[in-house]
Design a protein that fits this description.
Strand order of the largest sheet: 5-6-7-8-9
Distance between the termini: 82 Å
Number of domains: 3
Number of strands: 9
Largest sheet: 5 strands, antiparallel
Order of helices and strands: HHEEEHHHEHHHHHHHHHEEEEEH
Shape: elongated
Oligomer: single chain
Radius of gyration: 37 Å
Length: 386
């Protein structure tokens, strides 16, 4: 707009052109290297053919321009966000490349009889293209001779060429293998050291010196709980228990809900996993009774050895007969690894670890109700008592 206003002494034509542009009298704009064309409605029924010509950049100018843009990652990010940063214009001007046109570079053209330079129709086109550049800065690059894809492609090449060659990363030792070596010849673990000057009432606390950044998504209390959880897992790993190394993200989320008993954590993990609140609560209880295996037993029915199921069915039927004070025998229904005890609201599930997991029916769904045992009658007795 500065180039337009500095190219003429007739402010009246510019004012009328600005009014034309605001009223939407500029038709479809066609942008090509070095020129802009659009029909502009004037006082006559038929719109006038208006155009604006500006010089395209030479190959050397483009090379200098793209180098200046690629030198700052913020320039590329701003352009992709639809912004033309003022710093970019200053950088290109300092490099001797006229990204924005000067007054002498604007060459208006119109089919109207107005002798003004520019006429109000060409002025309206200038105002309209200025607004277009505000929405899409790549329009300006197209006017100077190169389209969006070509500019981004060349910027990408320059950015990649400036990156240092990646150094080869040592292979190292996988974590599971390192822990397995430790388990073969474990050493005695020292007691956790209590920092000097801390009272006995606060020995179990772990205070962070500063709060995490607000945008981090975690509070100081969150990080303190995660630190304590990490330390506890590390001691378990060093003691030879590697089961936590194979947890999926979903399993680890359930583990955290079982060990970190805080409502905010439960709500955050529920949203992150996409589980329904009651489903996450059910899996959390399963984890507390049986860990990852207990969670697997709660989620899907699994295969089971028919002979094991038949033996368990006989033992449970005999135990039920002794427990029932009156009435006939309790019917047992077997399906895959599950043994449902009639209308008692109890169920036993055989896990892949060979243990029996007791379940109780609550509000139409089956919930874990006691720790697993290797004997189905013991599992039944515990569930019956509870």
């Amino acid at each position: 707009m500065t180039a337009l206003e500095d190219s003429t002494l007739d402010s009246g034509r510019l004012a009328r052109g600005r009014t034309y542009a605001r009223k939407g009298m500029v038709g479809t704009i066609v942008v090509a290297p070095g020129q802009i064309k659009a029909p502009v409605q004037g006082s006559q029924p038929r719109p006038y053919r208006s155009a604006l010509h500006i010089p395209v950049l030479t190959g050397g100018q483009w090379d200098t321009l793209l180098t200046a843009i690629a030198a700052r990652a913020g320039h590329v990010a701003a352009l992709l966000d639809g912004e033309m940063p003022a710093e970019l214009v200053e950088d290109t001007r300092a490099a001797g490349v006229p990204l924005l046109p000067g007054p002498t570079e604007l060459d208006p053209e119109c089919s109207c009889p107005d002798w003004g330079y520019p006429c109000k129709h060409a002025a309206a086109l200038c105002y309209a293209i200025a607004a277009r550049i505000d929405d899409d800065p790549f329009v300006l690059f197209a006017l100077r001779g190169r389209g969006r894809d070509q500019v981004l492609g060349e910027l990408r090449e320059r950015r990649q060429a400036e990156r240092p060659a990646a150094q080869e990363t040592p292979a190292g030792t996988p974590a599971a293998a390192a822990y397995a070596r430790w388990a073969q010849a474990p050493t005695s673990l020292p007691r956790p050291r209590v920092p000097e000057g801390r009272s006995s009432a606060r020995r179990s606390e772990s205070r962070l010196p500063v709060d995490p950044p607000a945008a981090f998504g975690l509070t100081r209390a969150d990080l303190e709980r995660l630190t304590a959880d990490t330390a506890a897992r590390a001691r378990t790993l060093l003691a030879g228990d590697h089961t936590s190394l194979a947890l999926t993200q979903r399993q680890d989320a359930v583990r955290l809900t079982a060990t970190q008993r805080h409502l905010a954590w439960f709500q955050g993990l529920q949203a992150g996993t996409g589980l329904r609140p009651m489903e996450l609560a059910r899996l959390t209880r399963a984890w507390r009774y049986g860990g990852a295996v207990g969670m697997a037993v709660a989620e899907e029915p699994g295969p089971a050895d028919p002979a094991v199921m038949a033996s368990a069915r006989t033992a449970v039927a005999e135990a039920l007969a002794d427990m029932a004070s009156e009435g006939g025998p309790t019917p047992l229904r077997g399906w895959r690894n599950r043994l449902t005890l009639g209308d008692t609201g109890l169920q036993l599930r055989l896990g892949p670890d060979g243990r029996w997991y007791p379940y109780r029916q609550e509000n139409g769904d089956w919930w874990p109700c006691a720790p697993a045992t290797s004997d189905p009658v013991s599992a039944l007795t515990t569930a019956w008592e509870r």
